[in-house]
Structures are given as C-alpha cells and as structure tokens.
Amino acid sequence: MTLNGVMETYDYDDRGLVTEATLGNGAVIEYEYDDDQRVIRIEHLDEAEDTILKLEYDYNDRDLPVTLTESDAGGMFAETAFTYDDRGRLIHEERMVSSGPSPEYDLAYEYDQAGNRLMKIDAINELETAYVYDIDDPEAFASGNNMLEYTTVWDVGGQSSVLVSTTWYDYGDDALGQSDRNGNPTRIVTETAADPGVYSATRFVYDKAQRVWLKRSGCG
Predict the structure, then answer these.
(1) For each of the chain's 220 residues, which pLDDT tens digit applies?
(2) How far, in Å, CA of 168 to CA of 153, rounded?
(3) What is the Cα 137 distance to its own chain's centre?
(4) Who contacts 108 (Cβ-Cβ below 8 Å, separation ≥6)?
(5) For residue 172, which of 201, 151, 198, 196 has the smallest C-alpha distance?
(6) Which among 18, 20, 23, 27 has a CA at the least distance from the CA of 6?
(7) Of 105, 113, 135, 196, whose CA is between 20 and 30 Å from 80?
C-alpha cells in the first residue's frame, strides 16, 4: 500500500488485526493486543530495530484506557492517567513526565446532561475553556441542533478571570462553496484578547466519509 508516496506493508494475526506495519524507509510499527482485541502496545522501531517510541495501554472493565505509558530507547519517560464518570465520559487526564522535554498536563472536564463538554480546566497553566452550544443560547442561535458555536479561554490565575481568546465555529458553505450537512465545522475563527479585531481562520473541506480533505489557514 502507498500512503503519501511512502510504501507500507502490513502483517495480520489470525483475528485480522494488524500486528506490524513496515514503512518504505525501513522503519517498523508493531501492534500487540489482549484477548479482548484491545491494543495494549504500539511500538515504533527504526531500521536498526531500536525503539523510537513505545506506547502501552491499560484498560478498565468498560474497555476504556486508564493509563498510557510512553517509552523510548532510554526507557519510560511519561505516563498519562485517565479518569471517567459513570457514563464513561473522560473527566480527568494527567500526564506526568519523568525525563525529557515533553510537556506535562493536568486537565479536568465538565459536561451537561446531553454529554456536551461545558468546561475544560487546565490546572498547570491556570486556564479554563468554556463551551457554548446553540441550544444554550436560543435567541442568538435558533437551530437548536446542539452544535458548538464558540469557546472562550480564561486566565484564572489572578484575583479575577481574564479573557484570553474567543473561538467561533461556522457550519456554512466550505472553502469550495459546498454545504456540509453532517455538522462538521467549515470554518474556525479565533480572536485573542491581546490583539482585538485581528482574526485567524482555518477552513475545512470534507470528503464523503466526513474526513478532512482540504485545510486552509490564514487571517479573516
């Protein structure tokens, strides 16, 4: 198989699960699964069979990952723990780094009864992101389709919260003048409080499988 001009070959086990992908440059990706067909190891090896990156997963009884361990040729360097509510929604994730420059994070999430994410709380950077859906503001957004309309990021490290940025989601015609009827955003626009009136925008075009086919970034 050729992907983006790079040849890949695949090996499978008796269950039809991919066990190894070999790239044209000699690198190999190995996959390991448990008896429930859950992936428990993904290991990237270079042409000399040295480990570039190894990801190992542990799961709970609901098949949700609870820990992700990251290693390289020097051994383990990070572990991420995941916590869920009774409905299986991710409510907390914390990445702890034991070596190397990769970032740590400590994130908590809140949801409404419909399962929409209402808040992301970044404990390390002291930031909170609030999410607003069209059902939350029927006077401004009449569709009621439960679509994300905008988010606001707030710095909560001081005595009072300070607005950092606002991001709007547009579901109209895409960059080719075509309408997306699957609820995918066709344009995402961000304005920072430090530079009001200046907007950065990213436009998206999707294929029939709702995968991003074209992405354009710029201003306005």
Answers:
(1) 555 555 689 999 999 999 999 998 889 999 999 999 999 999 999 999 999 999 999 999 999 999 999 999 999 999 999 999 999 999 999 999 999 999 999 999 999 988 999 999 999 999 999 999 987 665 665 555 788 999 999 999 999 999 999 999 998 776 566 665 677 888 999 999 999 999 999 999 888 888 888 888 886 5
(2) 12
(3) 26
(4) 91, 92, 120, 121, 123
(5) 201
(6) 23
(7) 113
- H helix or E strand, kind and range, residue 41: strand 39-45
- 41 touches 32 (CB < 8 A): yes
**Two tokens, residue 119:** 């808040």
- Report the relative pairing of strands 28-33 and 39-45 from DSSP bridges: antiparallel
Residue 148's nearest CA partner among 190, 91, 188, 176 is: 188
From the list 46, 10, 12, the residue with the least C-alpha distance to 28 is 46
> For the chain, first and last CA: distance in Å?
39
Report the candidate in 85, 138, 140, 92 with the shortest Cα–Cα distance to residue 113.
85
**CA angle centred on 173, ends 168 and 176, rounded to 5°:** 120
- Whole-angstrom Cα distance, residue 217 to residue 212? 13
Is the CB of residue 27 less than 8 Å from the CB of residue 44?
A: yes
Cβ-based burial of 153 (10 A; exposed 0-12, middle 13-18, buried ≥19): buried
